[in-house]
Design brief:
199 residues; alpha/beta; Rossmann fold; 7-stranded mixed beta sheet; 5 helices; 7 strands; globular
């Protein structure tokens, strides 16, 4: 898929206020500091469309970006160790879960996992939640720079073994690097194919 145009449309606190359109939506979520905003910007060939910050928890709303005037990329708040009050975390969790469960336009949610560290319990828990609620998802291993290829493969293998041990079906999995641009074309082609099926 060739990116021709991309623009920010809106930020919302509930799926009910998201754009009133039938355009397919592709959501991105992951643990805080997983490189979500950087990956979205790389996919869209923009530097600061999705706000990048060294402080976890920068994304606090449901953010919609219109791509090629045909589909939406949706940047969801991260989960994990963002330094915010417990009450705020609960609020974000409810907001995200409601979006994932009730947004009819959602085609797939990309779950981003940091390839530089072993599989985290919080990621495995979120995978279980997605499967339990039958939310279609794919996994993107982020930060898979060429110099860390062996480490990325090791952590990928560990995740697959954990999923197989639990009897889970292995979802589509991609390796990506916002720095080296690895995997970008594969992800865009995947999105294009799903968008064609859901248009």
């Amino acid at each position: 898929m060739k990116i021709q145009t991309s623009l920010f449309v809106s930020s919302n606190t509930t799926y009910k206020n998201c754009p009133n359109t039938a355009k397919p939506e592709f959501a991105f979520i992951g643990r805080s500091n997983v490189g979500k905003s950087s990956l979205i910007n790389t996919l869209l060939q923009r530097k600061q469309l999705a706000k990048v910050s060294k402080t976890p928890g920068k994304t606090q709303l449901i953010n919609h970006f219109l791509v090629n005037n045909k589909i939406y990329f949706v940047d969801l708040p991260g989960y994990g160790w963002a330094q915010v009050a417990h009450a705020q975390k609960i609020k974000w969790k409810k907001m995200v879960h409601n979006y994932l469960l009730h947004r009819e336009q959602l085609v797939v949610v990309f779950l981003l996992i940091d390839s530089k560290i072993p599989p985290q319990a919080i990621d495995l828990s979120f995978i279980d939640w997605l499967k339990e609620h039958q939310v279609y998802f794919a996994i993107i291993f982020t930060k898979t720079d060429r110099k860390d290829k062996i480490k990325s493969q090791k952590h990928y293998t560990a995740l697959v073994r954990l999923l197989e041990k639990n009897g889970a079906t292995i979802p589509d999995i991609f390796f990506a690097s916002a720095h080296d641009k690895l995997g970008i074309e594969d992800i865009l082609s995947y999105i294009q194919a799903l968008a064609a099926k859901n248009s």
